[in-house]
Amino acid sequence: MILPGATIGCLGGGQLGRMLGSEARRMGYGFHVYEPSAGCPAGHIAGREFNAPYEDLDALEKFAKSVDVITFEFENIPTDVLQELVRWRPVYPNWQALSICQNREREKTFLRDQGIPLAPFAIIDSLETLKREWETMNSAAVLKTADFGYDGKGQVKLNLGDSAKDAWNSFDQKKAVLEQWIEFDLECSVICARSRKGEIRTFPVAENIHTDHILDLSIVPARLSEIQKQEAREIAATIAEKLDVVGLLAVELFLTRSGKLIVNELAPRTHNSGHYTLDACPTSQFEQQLRMICGLPMGDVALRSSVVMVNVLGDVWKETTPPAWEHLLKQPGVRLHLYGKDKAVPGRKMGHFCVLQDDLETAIKTAEHLKSVLKSF
Asked: How do strand 184-194 and strand 200-202 relate by DSSP bridges?
């Protein structure tokens, strides 16, 4: 058990690391961050910020020896880095889970082998393979890069009649994944915590609405039946157990038009769709991550009120002028979180706010209204 007073190490210095660090500080832990780029959001609150490439073994060793346990806040970390760090300090989740989740081919194959429901897919390594597999699907499909895709990057939809050659040439990839296009009624996600002892606890299911492939709103409780919510939680728990995750696992799912839940993507970390937990649950996803990697008891994940989380992107800045926050902050039940990023760029996640109400529909209407208010100033 790693008790408060010890130091947490985080690989990656984005907003997820920043919020993890804030919770670590609140709980009495030290917090160090390793991030190739200086001046990162998590570095603003870290006791020490290590800036060096992930290939710098000397810097990695110094970082590891300055902390008591190590975790990470995003997937695009070479797995050999985790294998190197574990020589000096415990690292959670394990490198094998990261390896599976950071590559779509390995992730889809793992899910299929475990009997987890997902869209039909094929591994593509050439234009000829793409043509053959797409013809077999005989439907619209999505071509995705095997590595390093997020927020809609590294993927393109293929409608029947489109040019397979143009799609393949636009990727400049040696390998990709072709998924059958799924018509769905709703997207949702589950944040699942798993302890060193194998205990599992899931946060309430979030309903997610995306705009231009970026998460726009998370609505909690999700507008699903109780049976569907339970099924989503069970799917997430099964995957976390099969991956032997210690920490958190985010599982994104589609509810198809036929009422079936299928898995879309995995992330072995805290997740954008779990930000509502900072304000609406006794234990946030970030505190739960700390509890899991430190061997502490699991925290309470009950939902205290209906909540809608709204992403705030750089689009609402007028060049360098931020939006009129006072119009948002005067609204009862609203909590604003900004990430300390130095430059607002369209599509860049700059912060989020949560609207908490007893009534879910009121929370949704208020959130939509406040979104439009921020855009109008």
From this structure: antiparallel
- Provide the 3-class DSSP secondary structure of residue 349: strand
End-to-end, the C-alpha distance of the chain in Å comes to: 49
CA distances from 20 to 71, 96, 168 (A): 10, 22, 39
SS (H, E, C) 239-297: HHHHHCCCEEEEEEEEEECCCCEEEEEEECCCCHHHCCHHHHCCCCHHHHHHHHHHCCC
CA distance 117 to 189: 14
- How many residues make up the chain in this entry? 377
Write out pLDDT tens, residues 240-295: 999 999 999 999 999 999 999 999 999 999 999 999 999 999 999 999 999 999 99
Which of 20, 69, 71, 68 has the alpha carbon at shortest distance from 46?
20
Q: How far is CA 8 from CA 87, 139, 247, 289, in A?
A: 16, 48, 13, 11
CB atoms within 10 A of CB 272: 21
329: Cβ–Cβ under 8 A, 6 or more apart, which residues?
A: 336
Say what the pTM is.
0.94
Output phi, psi for 267, to 5 deg: -145, 120
Which amino acid is present at 253? Answer: L
What is the distance between the alpha carbons of residues 208 and 350, in angstroms, rounded to a whole number? 18
- Quote the CA–CA distance of 18 and 352 in Å, as a whole number: 13
- Of 286, 281, 200, the closest CA to residue 244 belongs to 200
Q: How is residue 273 written in tokens?
A: 């769709």
Please write the tens of the pLDDT for every residue from 122-160. 999 988 898 899 888 888 999 998 876 555 567 888 888
Q: How far apart are CA 13 and CA 44, in angstroms?
A: 9
Q: What is the pLDDT of residues 327-338, one digit of tens each?
A: 999 999 999 999
Q: What is the structure's pLDDT at 151? A: 53
Cα–Cα distance for residue pair 108/372, rounded to 1 Å = 38
Q: How confident is the model at residue 369 (pLDDT cuts 50, 70, 90)?
A: very high
Pick from 108, 118, 140: which is nearest to 261 by CA? 118
Q: Under DSSP, is residue 214 helix (H, G, I), strand (E, B) or coil?
A: strand
Task: Name residue 351's amino acid.
Answer: G
